[in-house]
Amino acid sequence: MIGQWKSEVTVNGEDQGTATHQRMWVPGRHGLRMSWQGESDGAVVHAFGISGWDSQKKAIVENWHDALGNHTSVIYPLEKMTKSAWEGTARRVYPDGSVSEGSCKLEKGDEQWIFTVDGEKEGKPEKVRNVTRKVK
User: Fold this and answer.
1) Longest Cα separation, the chain
2) Are the beta carbons of 51 and 64 closer than 8 angstroms?
3) What confidence tens digit (pLDDT) does each residue in 32-55 have?
4) Phi-psi region for residue 127, left (φ > 0), alpha (ψ -120 to 50) or beta?
5) For residue 22, which of 40, 38, 39 has the smallest C-alpha distance?
6) 104: which strand partners?
């Protein structure tokens, strides 16, 4: 998952555009530093994240913050990780304090991955799907 990537993003089946991102090792190779750039309502949005192993939770944990004030946390417990897919939970807190949360899945391949969230925001279903391909 190291390198340059491009994602096609949908929420509840509606196209949300594309995003580009980069993932690289932090010094010591104990975590990943991630940057993301996409569009939201016609404006360019930047997001930054860090991913690493949480030995207490026995899980890979990702924390993201974006320029709109959103914070997203994704947790992949070790017992729900296989070579081809990781299952876990995703939770996003919006600037107004509202929350979207649910189960997530990362299906992995050599040159692409598919990240899905089957969640709920304010009592309404919210389904997110990112199809991400390696930039060559």
Assistant:
1) 42
2) no
3) 999 999 987 678 899 999 999 999
4) beta
5) 38
6) 88, 117
The number of CA neighbours under 13 Å toward the Cβ of 118 is 5
- Tell me: the pLDDT tens digits for 105-127? 999 988 899 999 999 999 999 99
State residue 69's pLDDT score: 94
- Taking alpha carbons only, the member of 43, 45, 42, 57 closest to residue 20 is 45
- For the residues of 81-103, what is the DSSP string, one character each? B-SSEEEEEEEEE-TTS-EEEEE
Hey, how many other C-beta atoms are within 10 angstroms of the C-beta on 84?
Answer: 9
Quick check: 136 pLDDT over 90?
no
Spatial contact of 51 and 62, defined as CB atoms under 8 Å apart: yes
Q: How far apart are the C-alpha atoms of 27 and 82, rounded to whole Å?
A: 26
The β-bridge partners of 107 are 85, 114
Q: Quick one: pLDDT at residue 110?
A: 80
Question: What's the start-to-end Cα distance of the chain, in Å?
Answer: 13
